[in-house]
Amino acid sequence: MRVTYRREMKVKAEMDALGVPAFVPMRRIMQRGHRLKNTLEPAIHNLVFIHATEEKVQELKKSRPELQYMMRKMNGKMEKIIVPPKQMDDFMKVCTASPDFVEITSAEQIQLKPGQEVMVVSGPFQGIRGHFQRVEGHRARRLIVTIPGACAATVEVNAEDVTLIHNS
């Protein structure tokens, strides 16, 4: 869901209080002031992932005007972005592994080239599916887990920890 005016943490707190699972991808930043301080902030402002039924989301939207559906163009028409559970689990595992090593970007910033999908077969990201390729600004190839139309998370993994997925 998209939220207005950088209210993602407020909305997440409200969802937590209601018992509705919600996730906000975070990143670590150095904040300057009187002293340097390491803090976490939302990696992409105005974005909250909510796990709920369509009926529950409609109910939440009625009482919270700052909640809006995220949409993307599919087959010539605009559709709500709904993330399959396995894809969301993989994305959350990568995002929460370590904010120091994960990079989260908007979907437009990741230009996936046609290629093979991979699965991580060993290491801390075992079982996660994504694409394995070079990302601008990084020396080594990285695992890219995308939420089409929303965002992508990238993290460095060893080449020997991934295997190609053969789509037939």
Q: Descriptors for this entry?
A:
single chain, 168 residues, alpha+beta, 2 domains, six-stranded antiparallel β-sheet, two-stranded antiparallel sheet, 3 helices, 14 strands, 20% helix, 33% strand, globular
Kindly describe this structure.
The chain is of the alpha+beta class. The chain has two domains: 2-69, no CATH class; 85-164, no CATH class. The chain is built from three helices and 14 strands.
> Largest sheet, if any?
6 strands, antiparallel
The low-confidence runs, each spanning 5 or more residues with pLDDT under 50, are none
Number of spatially distinct domains:
2
Order of helices and strands: EHEEEEHEEEHEEEEEE
Please report the total strand number as a whole number: 14
The Cα radius of gyration reads: 17 Å
Give, in spatial order, the strands making up the sheet with the most strands: 9-13-12-11-10-14
- DSSP helix count? 3
Approximate helicity band: 10-25%
Mean pLDDT: 88
Structural class: alpha+beta
Shape: globular
Taken as a percent bin, the fraction of beta residues is 25-35%
Q: State the distance separating the first and last CA atoms.
A: 33 Å
Fold blueprint:
Layout: E1 2-3, H1 8-18, E2 22-23, E3 26-31, E4 37-42, E5 49-50, H2 54-63, E6 67-68, E7 71-74, E8 77-80, H3 85-97, E9 103-106, E10 117-120, E11 129-133, E12 142-147, E13 151-156, E14 162-164
Antiparallel strand pairs: 1-6, 2-5, 3-4, 7-8, 9-13, 10-11, 10-14, 11-12, 12-13
